[in-house]
Every structure is written in structure tokens, then in C-alpha cells.
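Onboarding guide, step 5: your first structure request.
Type a short instruction followed by the sequence, for example:

Predict the 3D structure of this protein.
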Amino acid sequence: MNEMNNVGADRLSRRMERGCTFLGSEVAIMAGAMSWVSERNLVSAMSNAGGFGVIACGAMTPALLDAEIAGTKALTERAFGVNLITMHPQLDELIAVCAAHGVGHVVLAGGLPPKGSLEAIKASGAKVICFAPTLALAKKLIRSGVDALVIEGMEAGGHIGPVSTSVLAQEMLPEIADKVPVFVAGGIGRGEAIAGYLDMGAAGVQLGTRFVCATECVAHPNFKRAFIRASARDAVASVQIDARLPVIPVRALKNAGGELFTAKQREVAQRLDESAVAMAEAQLEIEHYWAGALRRAVIDGDIEHGSVMAGQSVGMVTKEEPIADIIAALMTEAADALHKRAA
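The system replies with C-alpha cells like these:
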């Protein structure tokens, strides 16, 4: 048994080497940035356990991000990153905050990076990681100088695209994995899946939902209980009701909050009809809505009217446990899977 574990562990270590070197971590597992969830406690615990924590800036002001980074650095001496939303109206100031703290990795999410943002991040010495929902966009981002990519499928929680993780991985890894480190995300809940994507050429993976019920996570007990009770089919995507209002779908557990979001879309669409709000402002208002709805669920524990964002891997979350134990289980499963494939 020990020999089997050693052989599998060696294979896993070799496959994760590129991702670990890039991230500066012991294992090539990134923690997905989840607003209100991925704060200093979870991020530092993730990095201290050998993974790579990522602060979710979300709608934070530069002052709040400054405090969050400082708070995280007080809890860990290991590498961690910061996730910034490209549509944030103070993106330049947020990048400057990251630079002032010497943050080594900045993850840009929410669309194409605005002009000058990549250059500003790289000028600070930080690595830039971007999300690539299509192969064409991945190639464009690589040409623009990004250092790594995350390809995330529709099984993920929070904002999602229309294509599954397995299809994205098959289409994109053969084309881009030799150019930059690529981290696969969306619906990953066990180590066997991690092993599979590493075998396909991924440098590592990103998981979010799997870490929500970590002991170190500050999410409200009600929020965690909702995850533990839920099955994969409970995590559903929101519906866009007006073609003029391009709302990126959000995957969350079914509750009354979904109906509230539909009502919010109708309200914003009516104000567009009345020319009372510009399209960009309308999109930002939707983002602020999600931030508030998520806070009600994560912080206040209102899991009925708040947004309980969760990926379809939620059915594999069965208990609250230390993040180090979660990572250890994932690594054991991945190592065992790699050993079996070699046998």
C-alpha cells in the first residue's frame, strides 16, 4: 500500500511541478475567489496548508482591499493572490494597492482586461492570471502577455459561461497548455478529476465550492449547512429575462433569492426602457445586487433570500473539516488515481 501511494504521489508531484513553481505553493490547487468567503482567514489557511489562496476583492474599495491584504499577510508568510473584477470603477487604484503590498499574483476576472491593466500589474513584478472562456480569447490573452490562464466550466458556482469543464479542457488544453500554465476549474470535487486534468496537460486546478465548508471559512453556519444538505441538481443557473441586458448567469442553490433576482432584472430593464440608466451602469448595478445578495447569505445567514452561490460539486461537500484535511484527501485521491492508470 505504501509503495502504491509513493508511486502515485511521485507522479502527482511531477505533474503539479509546473503549477507549483508558478504559484509558489506546495500543491497546484488554487482556491477560487468567492466574494465574502475568500477573505483573510480562508485565504491564509489555504496557503498555510500548501495550496494557493486568493482574496476576492469583489466590490471592495481600495482602502478595504489594502486592509484585507495586510490582514492576510499577518496570518501567512506564504504566497497568495488577489482577484480583481475588470469592471470595477477603481481598478487602477486596486492594482496600485496590490503593487504596494508586493502581491505576487493578480487574477483578473469578469471580461477582457481594460487597456493598460496588464501592463500596470506586470510593471509591479506580479504575474497576471486571466479567465479564458473560449479558445480564441485564450490565444488573444496569451498574445497580450498574460502569464497563466484559468479555464472554468459551467459547473462552477457564481458567474459562469455556457460550456462544460470537460469540453473546455478537451478543446483548449492541447492548444495552449504548452504556452502558459493553465488551471482547470468548475465542478471539481475529488482528486480523481484533478489527476485527469493534469494528465491532459493542466498545470493545476482551481476549486471553490469544495472549500466553503472548511473549518477556517467565516461563512455563516446556515450557509455551510445549506452546502452540506445540497445535491448537485440543487445548484442551478440564473435566467436572463431581457436580451438587452446581458446578465452573466450565476449558479447558486435554488431558493427565493432567485425570484428576487428575476424581479431585479425586470426593474433594471424598465429603467433602460425609460433611459434612466446607461447600459454600463445597469450591468454594474446587477453586480452590486449580487454582492449584496451574497453577503446576506454568507455573512447574515439568510439562505432563503440571499444568494447561496455554489457549484455542482456541492453534492460532494458532506461535512465541515479543516482545509488541510480537504487538501490531503484530494491529493491522496489524485495520487491513487495516477497510480492505477500507470499499473
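Each response can be followed by summary notes, for example: Residues 255 and 304 are 5 Å apart (CA to CA).
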